[in-house]
Amino acid sequence: MKIISVLLSTALLAIPTEAYSEGFDLTDHTSQLNFYHKAATDLTTEQVALDDICVVDQVHMIMRHGTRYPSSGSYNGIKSFAETVTKYLSWTNMSDTMAKELQFLKTWNLSELIPNPEIEVENLTALGLQEAYDVGSTFRIKYANLYDSKETVWTNAKERVVRTAKSFMNGFHGETWDSSLLVQVSNTDKTLGGNTLTPIDTCPNFDGDESSSQTTFAEATGWQNAVAERLESLWPGFGFSTGVALTVMDLCMYQRNFLGKDHLEFCQIFTDDEWQHYAYHKDLGYYYGSGYGVTLAPTVGFPYAEAVTKLLNETATKTCQKIFVAFSQDTQLNAMYSGFGLNYDDSYPTNAINNTRNFRSSRVVAMGSRMVTERITCNNKSYVRFSINEQVVPLRGCQSGPGLTCPLAEFVQYMETRKTAVGDFVTKCASTGESSELTIFENPVTNQCSKTTN
Questions:
Q1: CA 386, CA 358: separation in Å to the nearest integer?
Q2: pLDDT at residue number 16
Q3: For the chain, what are the domain ranges?
Q4: Which end of the chain has fewer CB atoms within 10 angstroms, the N or the C?
Q5: Could you give the CA distance from residue 378 to residue 280 in angstroms, rounded to a whole number?
Q6: pLDDT at 196
Q7: Can you say whether the dihedral through the CA atoms of 235, 241, 244, 245 is positive or negative?
Q8: Are 440 and 62 spatial neighbours (Cβ–Cβ below 8 Å)?
Q9: pLDDT for 181-238, tens place per residue?
Q10: From which residue to which does the signal peptide run (predicted)?
Q11: For 55-100, how does the pLDDT look when each residue is reduced to its tens digit (9 = 90+)?
């Protein structure tokens, strides 16, 4: 593993800096706040190509809600920054010290970005609804040979997740879809145990901690202090703290999400190096907050992984449904990735950037992120393929099939071994629930075996 030392000294502040370079992939460094985008990958098209004889005969998708407005906590930070900007600009000559990179703040107005915070904060944007609709329509087209007009879809009961699912249904089933086909699974009922789409919330022993690793990284590298000091050099007297500096970086994504993807004013303040540190800061939060850095993450993510595995291993499901779609949130998806063992890293240091890491939050938990699991048949042999945000993610130790797929029989054996390794959900979580298994997919609203499919 290649480790890059990232100690930033304040001496660097004396060197003129510019915005991120022309060839820099910004969306590969902006983590969970960014609108949906196809993930970057290190794999070539040739590596993941399939022969024309291969066909998908069963598919699963778990998707995060679409692009949303800030959480209440984030909004409060943005509002505080906006109020400080307004106050300082009202002072005589205060704007005279602003560098050109910040001149846009003279006309920047938070009310244009978030005009109705009382109803917008925490909720979906128009872009988020459109993202979900587009996924629904493209999913129906891509898997037309598997589609049925009575396909059941599942969602957790969080409002923005439900709205995402409904918009998906509009694209998937059409505007007049049967509302009974969308099944809401409680996200507050602790007695569900593993039979939920929010397993972190039903696991009392889950002890994710995203902030400690981020603090250690900041102290070891000095990156947050360096960014704050450079911002202060662009507007002397403003008083940029490390917290405000992070808020300004977050505003890069919020500005693009709400006003349009060409609104790069906040993004262009920062350099390649600063965005690389921001990305790793976010990666650490997810790794140690809901991923492999949490001992129980694979355990809470396993019920979904096992449910998918059981269905993939059935020649025909008991209800003849072939498309299984569900909706949840970023941290829940992150745990589910670990349930399968995807994007595993042998180590994830907190004192320097691991430049060859597999897990990158920008590629797996952006707004509208989704994992698609396909059963693919080629010459009467079945294989399993994972894709996250439209890029193939090979399963470590099982890539011998076409296009780096995993032969189904080997995958089933792998998951049986993994079940022993991750342990029982109810036992390890000290859950009040009775079930360690996710069984919701076994009971769709309509049994398609008893009807003529469309």
A1: 15
A2: 41
A3: 27-68+125-199+290-454, 70-122+209-284
A4: C
A5: 39
A6: 98
A7: positive
A8: no
A9: 999 999 999 999 999 999 999 999 999 999 999 999 999 999 999 999 999 999 999 9
A10: 1-19
A11: 999 999 999 999 999 999 999 999 999 999 999 999 988 889 999 9
Write down the residue that tokens 């872009």 correspond to: 127
Active site residues: 65, 330
pTM (two decimals): 0.94
CB 288 within 8 A of CB 208: yes
Q: How many residues does the chain have?
A: 454
CA-CA distance, 247 to 259, in Å (whole number)?
17
Long-range contacts of 262-268 (CB under 8 A, 24+ apart): 265/104, 265/108, 267/19, 267/20, 267/26, 268/19, 268/20, 268/101
| Tens of pLDDT, residues 23-50 | 999 999 999 999 999 999 999 999 999 9
Residue range 403-425: mean pLDDT, rounded: 98
* Radius of gyration for the alpha carbons in the chain, expressed in angstroms and rounded: 23
Residue matched to tokens 């290190």: 42
Query: Using CA atoms, how far apart are residues 258 and 125, in angstroms rounded to an integer?
Result: 7
Query: Domain 27-68+125-199+290-454: what homologous superfamily?
Result: Phosphoglycerate mutase-like (3.40.50.1240)
Q: Which amino acid is at 2?
A: K
